[in-house]
Amino acid sequence: MRIGLMATALACVMLAGGLPVSQAVAQDYNWRVAVVTPEGHPYNLGLDAFKKQVEEGSGGKIEVTVFPSSQLGGEVESAKNVQLGTLDMTIISTSNTAPFLKDLEVFGLPYLFKSLSCSYEVLDGPIGQGMAQALREKAGLRVLGWYTFGMRQLFNTKRPVATPADMNGLLFRVPADQLAEDSYRALGANPIPMAFPEMFSALQQGVIDGADNPLITLHQFKWYEVVKYASITNTAAGLSPLLINEQAFSNLPEDLQTLVLEAGQASAEVNRAAEAEATSTARAALEQEGVQIDDVDVSAFRAGVEPVFEKAAQDLGADLLGRIEAAQSDC
Q1: Which one, of 264, 255, 249, 261, lies nearest residue 29 by Cα?
Q2: How, if at all, do strands 229-232 and 292-295 pair?
Q3: Sign, Cα dihedral of 253, 254, 256, 257
Q4: pLDDT tens sequence across 115-156
Q5: Sign of the C-alpha dihedral, residues 155, 157, 159, 165?
Q6: Which of the residues 20, 59, 199, 305 has an alpha carbon 20 to 30 A from that of 96?
Q7: What would the pLDDT profile of 52-109 be if each residue is shown by its tens digit?
Q8: Number of H helices, E strands in the chain
C-alpha cells in the first residue's frame, strides 16, 4: 500500500511539471551537446544524423539536444565542461583537444597529410584509435567519431598572398597551439593566439589581419564581410573529435553503448560527405561576395615550415611522424 501511494505521488509530481508520466519514465538519458558552428554546417549535419539514429534506435530512452553557435561557450570551455560532466558532448578541433593529450598537437602540423581523405586513413586506423584510447584513459573523454571542418586556407584583409614573403608582418590568428604559432612565425607572420568565437570582431577591429580556416567557415560565418583575400594553400586538415563524457557513456546499458558507438561512426561519415559538398560550392559563393581567391604554388609554403617538422619530431617523437607518413602510403 505504501509503495502504491509513493508511485501515485511520484506520478503527480511528474504531471505537475507538465511532463506525461509515460514520457517521464521512458526518458532515461537527456544529453546536451555544445558546438560552435551554426545550423547547416557539416558539424551540425553530422550531429543531426547522430541525434536521429540514437533517439530512434533507443526508442526514446536517449534524448539529444544540440546547442549550436557557441550558445554554451567556445570549444575550450565546452571541452572542460564535458570532462567535468556538466556537459555531455561536444565537437572541438584537435588543437583545442591537445591540452588533454599532447600527441594531438601533431595534427596541427602544416602539410602533414597528403589530402583530407588521407587524414581519415590515419584517424580511423590504429593511430587514431590509440589516441582515442589515451584520451579516454587520461581525460575521461571518449571519441565517438572523427569529424572534419575541411582543409585550412589562408585569408586576410590586407593583400593577396601568393608566397610566404607576402605573409611578412601580417597579424595572424592561431589557436592555442605552439606548432601553429611556430608554423606561421616561420612563414613570416606574427601569430596571435585567439579563441575561435573572437575572430570576427578581431578581423573587424583590425586586431588581426587574417587566419587560416576552410572556405566553408569563411562563408558560413560571413567573414567575407571583412575578408578580401584568400589563398588556396591546403595548409592543414581541420580535424575534430566528437567527444562524450566517459561516465555518461558508461552509465548506458551495453545495447545502448553499442548504438551510440555505431551512431558516432555513422555521423562522422555524414559530416565528411557534407564537408565535401559544402566545399565544392563555397568558393563560388565567396567570389560572388567579392572575395579574391587565388590558387598558389604551395611548394614554398611547404619548404618554409620544414624547421617546424624538425622541432615536432623532437617534441612529439619522430616515430609518431613516421607512423603517420606510413599510414598514408597507400592513400
Answers
A1: 249
A2: parallel
A3: positive
A4: 999 999 999 999 999 999 999 999 999 999 999 999 999 999
A5: negative
A6: 305
A7: 999 999 999 999 999 999 999 999 999 999 999 999 999 999 989 999 999 999 998 9
A8: 15, 11
The three three-digit cell numbers of residue 149, written as one number = 571542418
**Is the separation of the CB atoms in 43 and 271 below 8 Å?**
yes
- How many CB atoms are closer than 10 A to CB 4? 8
**Cα separation of 29 and 274, whole Å?**
28
Domain spans of the chain? 28-327
Give yes or no for residue 5 having a pLDDT over 90. Answer: no
Q: What cell numbers appear for 171 in the block?
A: 597579424
Superfamily holding 28-327: Bacterial extracellular solute-binding protein, family 7 (3.40.190.170)
Q: Which three cell numbers stand for residue 110?
A: 602544416
DSSP strands (E only) in the chain = 29-34, 62-67, 89-91, 141-151, 153-156, 171-174, 190-193, 210-213, 229-232, 237-245, 292-295
Starting at the edge strand that comes first in sequence, how are the strands of the sheet with 29-34 ordered? 62-67, 29-34, 89-91, 237-245, 141-151
CA 86, distance to chain mean position in Å, is 20
* Radius of gyration from C-alpha coordinates of the chain: 22
Set of cell numbers at residue 56: 530512434
CA–CA separation, 225 and 146 (whole Å): 31
Nearest to 69 by CA among 225, 208, 221: 221
- Mean pLDDT across the chain: 91
Residue 80 per-residue DSSP state: H
Distance CA 306, CA 186 (A): 9
Contacts of 208 (CB under 8 A, 6+ apart): 171, 172, 173, 192, 194, 199, 202
C-alpha cell at 247: 561516465
